[in-house]
Amino acid sequence: MTTPTNTTIRRRSLTLLAGLAAMVGSIGLQGQAFAQASVEPPQAIAEKGHINYCATLDNPPRAFLTTEQKPTGFEVELGEEIAKRMGLETRWSQLKFTGLIPALQAGQCDALMQELFIKAERLEIIDMIPFSNTGQRMVAHVETDVQPTTLEDLSGMKVAVPNGTTIHNLAMEANEELKAAGKEKINLVALPTTTETFKQLSTRQVDAVGTTMTAAAYYVGLEPDQFRTVGDPFGLIETGIGVAKSNGELTAAITKAFKAIIEDGTYDTLIAKYNMQGSEL
Questions:
Q1: Where in the chain are the domains?
Q2: Residue 117 gets which letter from DSSP?
Q3: Rounded Cα gap, residues 189 and 244, in angstroms
Q4: Distance CA 258, CA 82 (A)
Q5: For a surface tag, which of 123, 140, 181, 254 has the fewest beta carbons within 10 Å of its beta carbon?
Q6: How many angstroms separate the CA atoms of 248 and 127, rounded?
């Protein structure tokens, strides 16, 4: 079996977005509850009056909690905008990254509003609506001379990564290559959250952190006297909102709402608000 390339995955995801938008062309508009065009949600969600999103809420500036424990960030505001176009309120369930897809499949949430990479294996089990681009980045402490340009350059170093994420998997692949070359592997420290990886870096318990480029930009901007990015971004890929394959009506409604958010400029406003230029579709 031929493994789909990133180009093929991107083509499939964009085709899905266009196709779903066409599917809902006949969905009637609700009353003018909002200035924007409203989208009819699935009946079951309309009856409960809210959409329940699952997310880690630990990935600033995309989604995180304020000191008052209120969800905020680019993905939170985007999720709220999508809900608003359907006349719904939002509920947020905070989960560990590895529990997101199982929770969706178990019906514990309606959608995953998360920096979730669109991969062939994920498209086999859930539907995904493309909403941004992202990539990986390495971060080191300013008081060290750590300067890797590739993951393999981290050979023998202690590196923190969020457990179960793409950077975690890429680092494990790099370790296989290092092992085959007879070199010392990366000493990976897999932690539950991105915040915990940077806490370890701030106290010099690890030599570097592997994370997404948006999280790297956020933490370096927040603590420039402690953190610095090293090397160039790599592994660029699209991210998508996850919906259960059994809930095609919701996938179609979210797609239509997201299309309206792009068309009226709200999407670009949110990208600029959270300094995420370069991550837009």
A1: 6-132+237-273, 135-236
A2: B
A3: 31
A4: 6
A5: 181
A6: 8
Contact 270, 167 (CB under 8 A): no
* Highest CATH level, class, for 6-132+237-273: alpha beta
pLDDT, tens digit (0-9, with 9 covering 90-100), for 199-252 = 999 999 999 999 988 889 889 988 999 999 998 888 889 999 999 999 999 999
Do the beta carbons of residue 234 and residue 142 sit within 8 Å? no
Closest CA to 207 of 223, 190, 186, 181: 186
Class of domain 135-236: alpha beta
Q: Which residues pair with 191 in a beta bridge?
A: 162
CA 230 to the chain's CA centroid: 21
Q: How many whole angstroms separate alpha carbon 216 and alpha carbon 251?
A: 30
Q: Say what percent of the chain tops pLDDT 70.
A: 87
- Which of 213, 211, 172, 171 minimizes the C-alpha distance to 195? 211
Cβ(232)–Cβ(151) below 8 Å: no
Task: Match 């709220």 to its residue by tokens.
Answer: 80
| DSSP label of 114 | S
- Of 260, 271, 279, which Cα lies nearest the Cα of 35? 260
- Scanning 86-209, the segments in alpha helix (DSSP H) are 100-105, 120-123, 166-180, 194-202
DSSP-based three-state secondary structure for 211? strand
Place of tokens 């690890």: 206
